[in-house]
Amino acid sequence: MSEAEPAVPEPSSPPEEGRRPFLEVADLRIHFPTDDGLVKSVDGLSFAVERGRTLGIVGESGSGKSVTSLGILGLHNRKNARVSGEIWLNGKELVSADPDDVRRLRGRDMAMIFQDPLSSMHPFFTVGAQIVEAYRIHNDVSKKVARKHAIDMLGRVGIPTPDKRVDDYPHQFSGGMRQRAMIAMALSCDPELLIADEPTTALDVTVQAQILDLLRDLQREFNSAIIMITHDLGVVAELADDVLVMYGGRCVEYGGVDDMFHRPLHPYTWGLLGSMPRLDRARSERLMPVKGAPPSLINLPSGCAFHPRCAYAELTCGLSETEVPELRVELEPTHRAACHLDAAERRRVWDAEIRPKL
Amino acid sequence: MSTDMKKAPASGGAGESGGGASDGPLLEVRDLRKHFPVHAGLLRRQVATVKAVDGVSFSVGKGETLGLVGESGCGKTTTGRMIMRLEDPTSGSISFEGREISGLSSGQMRPLRRDIQMIFQDPYSSLNPRKTVGSIVGAPFHLQNIETPQGVKKAVQELLELVGLNPEHYNRYPHEFSGGQRQRIGIARTLALKPKLIVADEPVSALDVSIQAQVVNLLEDLQNELGLTYVVIAHDLSVVRHISDRVAVMYLGRIVEVADQADLYTRPKHPYTTALLSAVPIPDPAARDDRARIRLTGDVPSPLNPPPGCPFHTRCWKAQDVCRTEVPPLADTAPGHAVACHFPVPDPVPGP
Amino acid sequence: MLVVTSMVTFGIFFVLPKLAGQTTDQIAATYAGKAATEEVIADIKERLGLDDPVVVQYARFAKGIVAGQNYDNGPSEIHCPPPCLGYSFRTSQPVLPTLLDRAPVTLSLALGASILWVVFGVSIGILSALRRGSLFDRAAMITALAGVSLPIYFTGLLSLTIFAYGLKLWPKGVKYIPLTESPGEWFYNLILPWVTLAFLTAALYARLTRAGMLDTLGEDYIRTARAKGLPERTVIGKHALRSSLTPILTIFGLDLGVLLGGAVLTESTFGLPGLGALSIQSIFSGDLPMVIGVVLVATGFVVFLNFLVDVLYAVVDPRVRLS
């Protein structure tokens, strides 16, 4: 896999002449009109993922990360969601496409696994039946062939005696096995894009490690593009090639995984790194949390949405309260951040004040 | 507020008494068991027993923090609930300040409830949405008939300030607060009666990452300020390491390893502990390739039908015949470091 | 199931006579006729064992169900063959044949109406849920509110006035014609009671289905079904419907059970001689054995259908089956 070769990640490199990245999202906006006002869950998001690579999307509750994933799959109800921008999957634009065409792509070209495998599987149908169903929508095969395929898939995701477990119901599986079954279902049509929304959050740590290993192996096998949505920076560091940090519906930092963990550019990313106790460092006396709480999308702070929680907001002379910072290329051509603060100044703060305390 | 700030030295093996003769441990649990009967059939006959907690012993010194870690179903929450006497132990003893509390009736427990308090995981469901913050935090005063020198309101406002909330928000309702603030309200309520021991069951796991750190820091500050003793129950090994003086690792209702925090995380002796530690994702992409990974296969066996011998032998790569037949006792391998394993991991751990 | 039924029978037997507030003298008097002397009454009491302890009377009654019973009615002795649910001295008939005679009316009414209300209630509920907030949804829910709040003797009389007499669709009113006699007449006469009864319950079912459907549509597994690329009609028809109908099944079992024991108001409103009408009639005439019989049958239906629902539940929901 790409881990072996230290290829420079190219999240933001312009597509080569006449060729788009496998998945390209450009200026995606997903807004929900509500009685309390317009909720801008995703507001101008752009990124790209190539096959065989993994993008980690990191954010807290209400950052818009899950809304983004459902948006790519076209799962938002067009009646109450306003979706604009462009989503190019393998050369096809999805936002303007006929919903039924997008529906045909779902499950076949792009699939998704969810956080809670118990509530994400129908309790009344066997695991096998649910995989068979997913396979047969997109493949014109007999039930018998589909069942064989389901058993095969269950075996490939590491479920012992798959020919027996195929007739079990989801509640008869353990949490880890359920998530494996969910992955088997998502991969049953050999999708090129796999979106995993907090796939291990509900699992125990030893099972989480198994599932992350499984995803890594399957990616190598299927050469699929993976979008990994999570709040856990540890998971991102384990799996991702590129990382996108979301805050208040916008991207605040986007770059390669090494840059992101070793040379982060945005004060919010610093805050996330400082918030988590780390097993790989000597125990720190105190954690360095971000002050305050994530904002409500209904009532987003003006200017830079992060400014009320930012320890360096005053250094922008009020700019952060009035103007939304643009996502700009900084230092490395592939590393972008949306911050009003001078890049050199931030580099200095990171080196002097943040990194030594992590 | 109390000025008792002395941190007791972290000492004592599993089940052995913590401090010196004059100053015994604040909480001592010995051979605690909780078996839940499983009934089935028309006559509701007992067909099996879930041994949720099966012989757990530990002690917590005054001012100390004990972390209880383990995966779901390991019995850590049941242990916490038994300390709180929310659950009656099947057998074993719990002594608090040298006094046996496992057999006390709820009436006899009542005065003790002031001294032992609990912080819950879910800050959303553990606060009554129809009560103001003032009445939630002030309720313990009324329940225990505590005299407050300058009135309940003043006392509550002091508590709110102590946990970092605006005292003027006295009349607001829980839904007006964010998740982290609600957890602070819960903590303020816990502190109202100046407890000596606080059992915190997954106190930060429902919170956003940036908020988790705030609450962890708050818990530490309060401990330093008020001389509190904590039993922190959590599944997040990094959080437990950060907050605890001593850590006990549980597996299938038993403690498999207990040691000082630094000891346990740098020199884990039990194979399960090493596996747990190696499974935690490290937020450093550079560590990806050179980490020694120990991957457990399979799932935790059902506590309905635990394997004979060492409970971990079904997933252990070091298991021998003796592991399948004999339960290893929790024994000291070094001062203050006890392990329940027939073949503990040798001292310089392979890998980082 | 049998345990519950026998417990209920036992309860009825002890409580009913007391609720009726009659002394044994009064009961005996009703059997004896107006001009009975004290001796006659005492004689009847003696022969019917009315002064025996209730337990003894109950034992006699229970024995009758299994072995039949003889009633000493003055000059003639009446044999009530097993299963004997008692003998009505009012009608000079054993209870059971009377019940069996009346049951088809109630059965026709209940089954027909229940099919109607399930079909219409559930489909309207689904459509409402899918077009939440639309004109259809609002109209349906307002109608449903009306249906839920209007009593049947109001809607029943209203429909009789408008459709039967006003529009002369049933100029002579409705009456029960047995299915075996003339299926067409049976159907024709029952349409109005069916529709009226179904209207009320369908309203309730529409609201329940709509709520259940909306709940289910928010479930994670519906999102999964859509993420698999299933067409919307499969998502709704297969995945959502199956879950949202399980609670409906429970209520349907109870409703049908209750209805089979006698649709009291409907039968009275339309003058149909079913079990409901029979129970009213028996209560007014103080015909205790008959009342006990009707209540027993009604209980039996409810208990049986509850059992049936439990069985069906296990078929539908594997979590119930395997736990």
Which structural class matches the secondary elements of chain C?
Answer: mainly alpha
Number of strands of chain C: 4
Query: What's the mean pLDDT score of chain B?
Result: 85
Low-confidence parts of chain C lasting 5 or more residues at pLDDT below 50?
Answer: none
Helix content of chain C: over 70%
Mean pLDDT of chain C, rounded to whole units?
A: 80
Structure annotation, total helices of chain C: 14
Q: End-to-end distance of chain C, in Å?
A: 20 Å
Q: Helix fraction of chain B?
A: 25-40%
Low-confidence stretches of chain B: 1-22
Oligomeric state of the chains present here:
heterotrimer
* Tally of strands of chain B: 12
Strand fraction of chain C: under 5%
Strand order of the largest sheet of chain C: 1-2
The rounded Rg of chain C comes to 24 Å
Question: Would you kindly provide a written description of the structure presented here, covering whatever features stand out?
Answer:
The complex is a heterotrimer of chains A (358), B (352) and C (323). Chain A has 358 residues and is of the alpha/beta class. Chain A is built from twelve helices and twelve strands. In chain A, helix 3 packs parallel to helix 6. The radius of gyration of chain A is 21 Å and the shape is globular. Chain B has 352 residues and is an alpha/beta fold. Helix content of chain B is 26%, strand content 22%. An eight-stranded mixed sheet of chain B has the order 6-7-8-3-9-10-12-11, sandwiched between helices. In chain B, strands 2-1-4-5 form a four-stranded antiparallel sheet. In chain B, helix 3 packs across helix 4, helix 3 runs parallel beside helix 5 and helix 4 crosses helix 5. Chain C is built from 14 helices and four strands. A two-stranded antiparallel ribbon of chain C has the order 1-2. The chains are: A alpha/beta (358), B alpha/beta (352), C mainly alpha (323). Chains in contact: A-B, A-C.
Which features characterize this protein?
heterotrimer; A: 358 residues; alpha/beta; 4-stranded antiparallel beta sheet; 12 strands; 32% helix; C: 323 residues; mainly alpha; two-stranded antiparallel ribbon; two-stranded antiparallel sheet
